[in-house]
Amino acid sequence: MATHGYESGRLNLPFVGLCSFGKYPICTDWDAIDADVAVLGAPFDFGTQYRPGARFGPRAIREASTLFSFGHAGAYDHEDDITYLEAEKTRIVDIGDADIIHTNTEQSHANIEAGVRAILRAGAIPVVLGGDHSVNIPAINAFSDEEPFHLVQVDAHLDFVDERHGVTAGHGNPMRRAAEKPYVTGLSQIGIRNVSSTARDGYEDARRFGSDIMSVRQFRTLGVEAVLDRIPAGKRYYVTIDIDGFDPSIAPGTGTPSHGGFLYYEILELMDGLARRGDIIGLDLVEVAPDYDPTGSTSTLAAQLLLNIIGRMLHHAK
């Protein structure tokens, strides 16, 4: 049966069928991944310091993503005059979730790392659905055998804590752990604002590691193009997006909401520019906690943003 064009194949409405990410094919054999992009769920939230619930993020994002799964013929953007995610040019699979062992951070993180490593072995780009931001730690660990990259973070919080009461792998630690890696060449930390999870010494440490830190207000004063000019050009980029980087008026479903955040198009334009500027070689989106958002707008925002970023990643790949 034909699967392209609006009037051929099944109608396959969003509420019909299995709930994979974007209704793309499911691949449960991690030794047989054959795709350009592979989506991995990391439903881990033991790293939270306040409200838990991001363990339900991957499931909620997948369900929300079915709203944007009409794409037999891809997604035409009239402003760009580009059709993204065309079926004939898009190979995306959903490989399910890493196994989470309750109360065991070390083994849960190891299982997430194994999933990302399997994606990289297959030559695909990993897209990780969190989970709290600590899932970025095993995701970055998985790149130890890959070429160096620059890390771009969108977040309300710096997440640069070294250690707090013996904790080194919670959701306040991931950017510090990333900065320590020899293959992470630098960090752009964008959206950082208000009372943060990191004290002043963390900001000083981040700058010593070479991090470029920008608030939402600084981002808006500069504009997207000037912000992009501060990110090294022609590089490999790993992108980590904490949903609390967005304003809680559009993304209330998160454990640590922070007012004064981004709106949708600000980050989409940043990601579009980044995809044109170099290669996005990995992506995670974390901290969606759907139980705090009865309207589902947070999960919808996450799914819409991810599919648009993936479309641009693939279209502009060098």
Shape: globular
Strand order of the largest sheet: 4-1-5-10-9-6-7-8
CATH topology: Arginase, Chain A
Largest sheet: 8 strands, parallel
Write the layout of secondary structure elements.
Layout lengths: L36 E6 L14 H9 L9 E3 L4 E3 L7 E6 L7 H17 L3 E6 L5 H6 L7 E6 L19 H6 L4 E7 L9 H9 L3 E3 L1 H7 L1 H6 L6 E7 L21 H14 L1 E8 L10 H19 L3
Parallel strand pairs: 1-4, 1-5, 5-10, 6-7, 6-9, 7-8, 9-10
Antiparallel strand pairs: 2-3
Can you walk through the features of this model?
It is a single chain. Helix 1 packs across helix 9 and helix 8 runs parallel beside helix 9. The longest helix has 19 residues. The chain is of the alpha/beta class. It has an eight-stranded parallel sheet with strand order 4-1-5-10-9-6-7-8, with helices on both faces. It has one domain: Arginase, Chain A, CATH 3.40.800. The radius of gyration is 18 Å and the shape is globular. The N terminus is likely disordered.
